[in-house]
Amino acid sequence: MPRKTNPALCATRGHLWKPVCRSRDYTVDHCARCPERRSRPPTPGEKASWKRWIKSKHPSEMHALSWAADAIVKEKSGYPAIVALERFAKKHPKRIFTAAVDDGANAGSSLTFITHEATRHNDTFDDHRAGEPQWHGVSVYYAPQCTGEKPTNFFLYPCDLYGLIETLQAVKKHMLTFPEVRREMNRHARWRRLDAKEKAEKCRKI
Ligand SMILES: [Zn+2]
Fold it and tell me: Where are the domains of the chain?
């Protein structure tokens, strides 16, 4: 049934807010009378209910690495945040992946991909088959070095990860129509091959 709307009433009496989605840090309300939406910090009750919900839905190990990264970026920003995330990634090489990017000021920065997965299975979770490892998605942390902004993050469910890869492939295809980029990438590939050979040489000498 379509929602009844009455924006005129909102103009005189204010919006009639109803929560529609929630996270640990924000609750999103929509107005029951008009198309308005708002984000706000959760009430203590909502926060507690979200914690109960996430605990019942997934084992805590599913999100533990991402929560640890949240704690890192809450305290740090800029270069110290980049270094702290790199150190953290090195401790969990199977679950944390990194990529170099530049921030808006063209200073070297990073993307940190943290998987939400559970290796232990608890068969009380009704949405997964007993014994199967669970996959939830990937949190991507972006820590700019020189723009003065706090690090931020976003989340990718499997279909969003595929969509992002498809978009990047499309951008790459277009980029490679530029001769100067093709030349640069060829130089880069040659350098990478040389580097691998040099490493092999060193290994033989040991
Ligand atoms: Zn309204």
Answer: 7-57, 61-158
